[in-house]
Each structure stands twice: as structure tokens, then as C-alpha cells.
């Protein structure tokens, strides 16, 4: 039994009865059980007092609801407790290191949140008259200025709502440029190391996706690109390449690849999801990139996850700038002008249309600009350097026990391992990841990128201290050695300490339960008289 400094047991033990002791409520001190809101909600209470409406004629006609709305209701304290209890079961960057690769789960400075909640930004409405939002437009213009400055590009489309939306925007600008030049190429080249949304975006726009295999070191070979261009001569619209790529490696031949694409009258789309590794160190425009989306919610620290919020502005080269979608910013004699309609266009401006109804994500803009201004140029550069340093620190700390598919070489902001170190242990990649949950860590990205079997992609970001990384590395080493000693009981069935046990993922995928159904009232059978 281990003791703390006061001589008390530091952990519950079977002997003390704490670990095995069952409670009446099912709660275990601060680890509280919480039922679904449908199970605890009632129809006779409400956290809000609503007056009975006066008589009116509904405008829905025959579409009006005929039955009561079967939604659960709670009192205000019950509702608050319900969601607080649920939040305590969710892993978050504010709770611990979040090693998801290719996702950049970094710390979100509270200063950014404070700025986003200023009334002039938080209360602005997209339907306000332009004369009432000049400050907001100036803020967006300043953010746009720094985005094009950091990337070395000519213009930026601010309205896309997220990364994949930005990809679509960039590729639509490329398609519009080809159409304006009287061309109609059908092929887009996509390396195997690109993000999965890249081929999906190209296919959505009707392009044929031609894959480019990764060479042995995990990067794209210029000759392979030239071979595909020759194979589809005159029919290549462009390439969609991620840099740094999904293997956590910088594409060292990117300038030569861009030159090959441009020589074939194609355009270079760069997936900017990994911009966090090169901000202040390399400008995509200098590398020959024509379009690149920027995940503001990843690179410039906005809380993200669960489907939002997000923002994916797209920076455009001089060749693509005229095709930026509406609305867009124009430099006017009296400051930035927000161009909303085709009637306001000037010569040379050829927007391909509109990506979204309004201007974009105001809160994301404010947070991103606050992050930039509080860091400054030197701070942004250091953030990139620290992100790369931390990933390599993890690599060096684990490379003697875990396997590196491309050898021990300098990586960028994320380090990629494969599962060959688990061979013949009886422990799978999934088992290993689930055991990490018991140790208090969210698992790393697994089975991605697809170019590596049993991939384990770790991105510590620049937010983590050396002490935090040391503990993470020590934990990973302990798990690896445990697996190699044959201690499969630690892994099979894990997690054991999470609020819920491991799901049957195969059954969940094949037979998902997508809607809660109220259970039928149980029928109590009367007992026969004796």
C-alpha cells in the first residue's frame, strides 16, 4: 500500500474496500453516473417560464405538428448538472496532452476568448447595414492582410467555413481559371500522403483523381509527378498536395513539383492543415503554391472538435486572385471595401460565385487575429519551431522501442510510428490505443495515413512543456514494454477505468442505433394466489 505525505493510502485498495465497494447511486465519489437526458427528463417541468400564446392561426397549414413534442425537460439546476457531469467524462486539451496527429489540438489562450466576446464583435449580425460594421470589416481586412503576408500570396477568400470547405473553394477557383482560359482538363493528381479530403474534393467537382505513390522515404518524387503529367498530357488540372505531408515530413522537392505542374498549365493546390509547422519559417507562395486553405481553428488557436466551430480561409496566387468568390475584400481609397455582388465588380474581377450566404466565422477571425497580434512575428515563428522540436523530442524518446516506418530522420510537427513493434505480442494497435485511455491520455491518430500499416501519428504541438512530454514518453515506454512482456491483460478489454468500457465497434458500425426509443412499459404479471 502506497502512502502520501500524511500517511494515508494514496490509492483505493481492495483491502480497504473502496475499489470494490458498490454504492447505492452507482456514483463513485466525483465519478458520477449520468443517464441520458431522455431518461431523466420529464414533461411537467421547464427551466424557462413561457406565457401561454394568444389565439393565432398557424401558417404551417397541414404541416403543423399534431402530437406533443416529445422532448425531455429539466429544471435549470438539473440541466446545468446534467451537462457539467457529461463534460467531466470528455477528454479535452484543458485536461491533458492531446496527441492527435494531423489535427493540431493546441492550447487556446484565454486572451483570444476574451477578445471574441467583446460586444462589438460578439453581437455583430450579418444582416446589419454596412455603415454599422466598418470596424468589423477593418478587423477582417487586417486578418486577411496577415494571412497573405504569412503565406506570400496575393489574395484571400475569407468566407469558407472549414478546411474541406476551403479545399472546395480553392479547387473551384482553379476550375474557374481553366474555364476562363478556354481549357477543360479532367485530371487532378493527389499523392498518397495527402489528406483524405483532397481526393474527395476533386471527385466532387467531377475530376478524375490520379494517385501518386509515396517513395520509400514517405515523400513525393518529382519524376513520379512528371510521369503522371506525361501519361495524361494536356488533361491535368493541377495537383493537391499536403505539405508538410501526412507522414509528418516536409516535401523537399515541392518547388520542382510546382514547376512541373505549371509547365503543364496546371495549378498547385496545397492543403494547409499542417501550416502550424511552418508559420514564419516558409511561405507557400514562395514554393509555387497557387491556392491553400488555412485552418484558423488549428493553426491560430480556436477551440475545435465535435464538428465546429471552424474557419478555412483560402489564400490565392496572383493567377487565381481574380477568381476569389463573393464576398471579398478590395482595397479602396477610404479603406477596405466589402464587395457583395456582381454589380460592384471592377475590370479583371471574375468571382466564380459564392461559397456561403454570409461573410464567414466572425469569432474565428477575432481569435486568430488576437493570436497573431499577441505573438508577433517572432512568436509565431517560435511556435512553429517549438511544434517541430516537441515532435522530434517525442521521436527521439521512443524510437528505440517503437518503430519508425521511414527511419530515424528529422520530422516536422508530428511523428509517425507504425505497429511493427507489436508483432507477435498479441496486442493490436487498437488495444494499445485503448490502454492509453486508462493512463489518462487521448489516443494518437491511428491507422492514418494509409500509406503506413498500423499507423500511429502523434502531434504534441508547441503547447506542451518538457515535463509534460517526459511523462507522456515514459507512459508510452511503459506500455510498449508491458506489451512486449506479454502482459496482454492490460490491453485486451481496455479501457478499464473510463466511464464506459470498450465499444463493440464492428456492431456499432453495422447496426448503429441512431435514435433513442422510449422503452415500452413493463407489464407486471400478477402472481397466482396460493
From TrEMBL:
GO terms for molecular function: glycine binding; glycine dehydrogenase (decarboxylating) activity; pyridoxal phosphate binding. One of its GO terms (cellular component) is cytosol. One of its GO terms (biological process) is glycine decarboxylation via glycine cleavage system. It holds the Pfam family Aminotran_5. Residues 383-490 form the Glycine dehydrogenase C-terminal domain. It catalyses: N(6)-[(R)-lipoyl]-L-lysyl-[glycine-cleavage complex H protein] + glycine + H(+) = N(6)-[(R)-S(8)-aminomethyldihydrolipoyl]-L-lysyl-[glycine-cleavage complex H protein] + CO2. Residues 184-305 form the Aminotransferase class V domain. Keywords: Oxidoreductase, Pyridoxal phosphate. Residues 1-20, 502-530 are annotated as: Disordered. It is an enzyme of class 1 (oxidoreductase). Its EC number is 1.4.4.2. Coiled coil: none annotated. The glycine cleavage system catalyzes the degradation of glycine. The P protein binds the alpha-amino group of glycine through its pyridoxal phosphate cofactor; CO(2) is released and the remaining methylamine moiety is then transferred to the lipoamide cofactor of the H protein. This is glycine dehydrogenase (aminomethyl-transferring). It comes from Stappia taiwanensis.
Amino acid at each position: 500500500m502506497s502512502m502520501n505525505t500524511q500517511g494515508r493510502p494514496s490509492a483505493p485498495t481492495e483491502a480497504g474496500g473502496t475499489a470494490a465497494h458498490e454504492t447505492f447511486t452507482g456514483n463513485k465519489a466525483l465519478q458520477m453516473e449520468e443517464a441520458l437526458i431522455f431518461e431523466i427528463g420529464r414533461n411537467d417541468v421547464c427551466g424557462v417560464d413561457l406565457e401561454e400564446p394568444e389565439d393565432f392561426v398557424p401558417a404551417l397549414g397541414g404541416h403543423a405538428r399534431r402530437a406533443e413534442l416529445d422532448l425531455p425537460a429539466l429544471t435549470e439546476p438539473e440541466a446545468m448538472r446534467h451537462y457539467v457531469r457529461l463534460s467531466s467524462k470528455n477528454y479535452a486539451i484543458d485536461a491533458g496532452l492531446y496527441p492527435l496527429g494531423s489535427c493540431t489540438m493546441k492550447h487556446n489562450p484565454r486572451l483570444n476568448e476574451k477578445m471574441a466576446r467583446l460586444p462589438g464583435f460578439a453581437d455583430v449580425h450579418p444582416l446589419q447595414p454596412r455603415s454599422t460594421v466598418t470596424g468589423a470589416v477593418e478587423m477582417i481586412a487586417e486578418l486577411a492582410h496577415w494571412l497573405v503576408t504569412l503565406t506570400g500570396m496575393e489574395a484571400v477568400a475569407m468566407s469558407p467555413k472549414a478546411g474541406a470547405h476551403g479545399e472546395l473553394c480553392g479547387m473551384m477557383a482553379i476550375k474557374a481559371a481553366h474555364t476562363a482560359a478556354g481549357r477543360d482538363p479532367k485530371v487532378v493528381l493527389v499523392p498518397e500522403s495527402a489528406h483524405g479530403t483532397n481526393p474527395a474534393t476533386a471527385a466532387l467537382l467531377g475530376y478524375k483523381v490520379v494517385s501518386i505513390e509515396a517513395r520509400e522515404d514517405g515523400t513525393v518524387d518529382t519524376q513520379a509527378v512528371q510521369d503522371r503529367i506525361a501519361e495524361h498530357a494536356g488533361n491535368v488540372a493541377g495537383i493537391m498536395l499536403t505539405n508538410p505531408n501526412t507522414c509528418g515530413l516536409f516535401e523537399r522537392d515541392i518547388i520542382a513539383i510546382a514547376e512541373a505542374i505549371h509547365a503543364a498549365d496546371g495549378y498547385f493546390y496545397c492543403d494547409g492543415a499542417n501550416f502550424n509547422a511552418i508559420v514564419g519559417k516558409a511561405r507557400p507562395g514562395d514554393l509555387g503554391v497557387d491556392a491553400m486553405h488555412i485552418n484558423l481553428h488549428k493553426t491560430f488557436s480556436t477551440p475545435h472538435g465535435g464538428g465546429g466551430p471552424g474557419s478555412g480561409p483560402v489564400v490565392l496566387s496572383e493567377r487565381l486572385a481574380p477568381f476569389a468568390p463573393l464576398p471579398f475584400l478590395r482595397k479602396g481609397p477610404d479603406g477596405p471595401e466589402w464587395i457583395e455582388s456582381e454589380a460592384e465588380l471592377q475590370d479583371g474581377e471574375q468571382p466564380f460565385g459564392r461559397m456561403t450566404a454570409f461573410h464567414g466565422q466572425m469569432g474565428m477571425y477575432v481569435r486568430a487575429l488576437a493570436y497573431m497580434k499577441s505573438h508577433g512575428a517572432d512568436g509565431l515563428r517560435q511556435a512553429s519551431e517549438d511544434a517541430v522540436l516537441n515532435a522530434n523530442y517525442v521521436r527521439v524518446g521512443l524510437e528505440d522501442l517503437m518503430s519508425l516506418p521511414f527511419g530515424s530522420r528529422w520530422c516536422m510537427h508530428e511523428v509517425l510510428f507504425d505497429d511493427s513493434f507489436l508483432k507477435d505480442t498479441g496486442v493490436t494497435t487498437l488495444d494499445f490505443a485503448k490502454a492509453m485511455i486508462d493512463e489518462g491520455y487521448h489516443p494518437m491518430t491511428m491507422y492514418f495515413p494509409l500509406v503506413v500499416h498500423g499507423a500511429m501519428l502523434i502531434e504534441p504541438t508547441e503547447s506542451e512543456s518538457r515535463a509534460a512530454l517526459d511523462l507522456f514518453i515514459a507512459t508510452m515506454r511503459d506500455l510498449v514494454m508491458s506489451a512486449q512482456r506479454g502482459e496482454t491483460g492490460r490491453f485486451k478489454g481496455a479501457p478499464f477505468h473510463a466511464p464506459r468500457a470498450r465499444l463493440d465497434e464492428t456492431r456499432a458500425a453495422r447496426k448503429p442505433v441512431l435514435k433513442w426509443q422510449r422503452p415500452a412499459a413493463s407489464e407486471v404479471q400478477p402472481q397466482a394466489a396460493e
